[in-house]
Amino acid sequence: MALPDSVTTCLSQPVHYVICKLGFEKKDTYDINNILSGNGEVRWQAVTEHVCYLESDQSVDYIKSILSLGPICESVNLYFKSLTKEQFVIQYVSWFQWTNCTEVFLEVFDVLQCTQATEVALGLMKLTSCLERALGDVYLLKGNDCPFLLRDLLASEQLADVFGQAVMNVLRVFIGSPHGLNLRNVLWHGFASPQEIPAKYCAMLLFLTAGLGQLLQTYLLQTKGVLVHRPYVIFISLEELDAFPDLNNEILTIAEELVKLSGFVLKMMLPFWIAALTAFKQSRYADSVILLLPQLEVGLRLLFTTTNKCPNRLLTAESSALYTTFDEILAKYLDNEEVNQLPVVLEEPAMASISKDFLWDFLNHQEGPRIRDRLSHGEINLETFPREVANQIVGFAITILCRFSDEDMFSLKEHMVIKPLMNCASRYRSRFHPISRLKKQVLECMKSIHLWPELPTVPEEEVRKIKELEGNAEANNLISMISEIICQLQHYVAQNCSNSDDLVNSVLTERLLVELCDTYICTLYSPRPVLEVVVVLRKISVQCHQVSQQVIAGAKLRYRQWLNKTLRSRQRHNYRRMLNSIKFMSPVLQLILLLITLELVSVHSVCKKNPFDYQQYLKFLKSVLQYTENLVTYTSPEKNKWDETVDLTKKTLIKIRKNNDRKLMLMHLA
Q: Does residue 316 come out as left (phi exceeding 0), alpha (psi in the -120 to 50 range) or beta?
């Protein structure tokens, strides 16, 4: 589809005026010594007196404040330009240590010396991210749950108690309030181009951060408090994020050509794209992703506004309206309840490589990396940002550039190093949706249960020493019930039960579960009933895995004690009962995993039934959950109630059989 190429700004006229012009209207030259003492400390009173307030309710008058603070920002910018790096470090480095990101603030000073617009914008994004994280640490000196949104954090009583309300009002003029300059949001959401962010505002925030460090130092001395920094988020299991092959210089060189020609890139944003690719080449992976994420958002916003015929939503909103951000771009419905057409466009065969699942996985799903949130809120150590993560974001961006390129760029799009990227994108399936996580849980649990046959065990004659021989009979009866249930399920698992004498071992296999879990399930916009069912299924899976781990640990421990002859008479008896119970418990757990997987595959159709059927179905699943929870209790080292597991299992198998009978009956009626 054709995208408009006439866009010259993503800032609405009022917002453009506030950011690019308002702070320049007063031409006064401000003496830096008015706000700076001889030893470099900020004279806060001289700064705060430039914040203006409305007569009506004494709230901040942001327009007049920006106008009044404009000359001060210019004076601070010129002051920093007059310093050498050595002078700046000697005078200010100690006052940035409270941020736990001193190096980032020193980098921002370097950027201000060259005033390259793209680097200034990048520096400002990193500065606001680190500043927000540090302010959150300060908040926790006096509060418990740190606010997620910057505007709520800056408006909190806790920070006002530490720094003073007047100081916090100065900060809110620059960041955190949609009524002010709102520099953090317009940059992180991709509304501002490099040329639209005045360097003097970056300089002022650098200056204010040092001033906050001075105030905090005084506060901590007075209160004898200690500022504790929250640990950074660390990406684990990086292999789960591996969607695209490693990007080499040849791919990146082609990407640089695509950026210049792709309709997905707004021309005034081109410097951000070039800088992002350059940063990746230079192994500055956090910088690369910080630069790219807002550009993906603005590009998708352009596509969103074009497909939904709402061009006005491309611009940054006023304080009285909502921004069009990733959340709305990826939503099922627009704010007027009409269907969002963007997902429809992305499902067209020509757009097959552009995966909504990828965006949801990397940006939104709670169990995913949530890269944009964590970067923009300062939760990630920028110095150790992993190449593996950056590789995925850049790889995904390249596939979008390709799909929104002209047909005369066919040679680039079909290049031998680009096609593997496109193929990976077209095959991508969600990895962090609750349904995907459930599949992973099931397979991990099955692997755990399959370790049971390898557990060390005493000779079989020892197990037969159980006085109550009916224990063996009960175990055999339970296995027979499991076989009956498997026969009920043959319609779903495509297995011929009549051809096997050992249904448990021939049907309840890891291979079958892998095949079932590989069945494609649409995860996008899963209805609430589906997610409610998945929540219960995941809890069941967790309990099954816990039982398996307890059995493995218990069996190993008791075997060592048996070898060392340290088991008392009662413990030996209990150990034999455990070994007897394992005979039926393994197939029971495997049966439950099979049921979970089958329910998962059919969950969408189940939840489309009438509410009564759905609620009855959910009630059944919760009864299975209760069984697995009890099983965890009985098999724990504290309880060791193996006899009780027999009766408990029998009752649950009866419920499962009845539920299957009911489902088969409904199927025949249908």
A: beta
The rounded distance, in Å, linking the Cα atoms of 18 and 632 is 61
In order of 116, 290, 377, 398, the CA distances from 276 in angstroms are 14, 8, 20, 12
DSSP letter for 555, please.
H
Do residues 386 and 242 touch, judged by C-beta distance below 8 A? no
User: For residue 577, what are its two tokens?
Assistant: 């009962």
Give the Cα separation of 508 and 446 in Å (integer). 10
Same-domain pairing of 392 and 314: yes
Q: From the CB of residue 213, how many other CB atoms can be counted at a distance below 10 Å?
A: 21
Residue where one domain finishes, among candidates 358, 392, 427? 427
Name the CA radius of gyration of the chain, rounded. Answer: 31
CA distances from 474 to 149, 449, 585, 625, 644 (A): 58, 21, 12, 23, 12
- Specify whether 469 is located in the same domain as 395: no
| Whether the Cβ atoms of residue 402 and residue 413 lie closer than 8 Å to each other | yes
Domain hosting 245: range is 238-265+276-427
Q: Which residues of 5-40 are buried (b: 16+ CB within 10 A; e: fewer)?
A: eebebbbbeebbebbbebbeeeeeebeeeebbeeeb
Q: How far is CA 499 from the centre of its chain?
A: 47
Residue located via tokens 């088991």: 567
Kindly state whether residue 6 falls inside one of the protein's structural domains: no
Question: In this structure, are 512 and 658 located in the same domain?
Answer: yes
The residue among 401, 180, 184, 189 whose CA lies nearest residue 313 is 189
The three-state secondary structure class of 333 is strand
> Rounded to an integer, what distance in angstroms lies between the CA atom of residue 243 and that of residue 239?
9
Residue 603, helix vs strand vs coil: helix
- Give the torsion through C-alpha atoms of 43, 73, 12, 9, to 10 deg: -140
User: Could you give the residue ranges of the DSSP H alpha helices within 235-269?
Assistant: 249-261
Amino acid at 290: I
CA–chain centroid gap for 454, Å, is 38
CB-neighbour burial class of residue 571 (10 A; exposed 0-12, middle 13-18, buried 19+): middle
Answer yes or no: is 330 within a domain: yes
Residue 2 lies in a domain: no
How far is 490 from 340, CA to CA, in rounded Å?
A: 41
Q: Could you give the CA distance from residue 61 to residue 570 in angstroms, rounded to a whole number?
A: 79
Dihedral sign of CA atoms 377, 380, 382, 385 in order: negative
Q: What is the pTM of this model?
A: 0.90
Mean pLDDT by 10 residues, the chain (670 residues): 71 94 92 90 96 92 97 96 96 96 97 93 98 98 93 96 97 94 95 96 98 97 96 92 94 92 92 98 98 94 85 68 69 81 63 68 92 96 96 95 73 76 88 95 96 87 56 81 85 57 71 87 84 94 97 94 89 86 91 90 61 74 96 92 90 91 60
